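hi! just following up on the protien thing from before. the input was this:
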Amino acid sequence: MPFGLGGPELLIVLAVFLIVFGVGRLPEVGGALGRSIREFRENVQANSDDEKKH
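and the predicted 3d structure came back as:
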């Protein structure tokens, strides 16, 4: 597991996430998180490509 998180730890994180954001906003927050991760990966890849050119 990433960051040394196992099953019980992930369940605790999920429970806290649901308490903070609520079930109704879960799709909205998940979509925003997915977009952020995708944008981060694209920027890292572009930066890596730029460094290879120099």
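DSSP finds two helices and no strands in the chain.
The chain has a mean pLDDT of 86.
cheers
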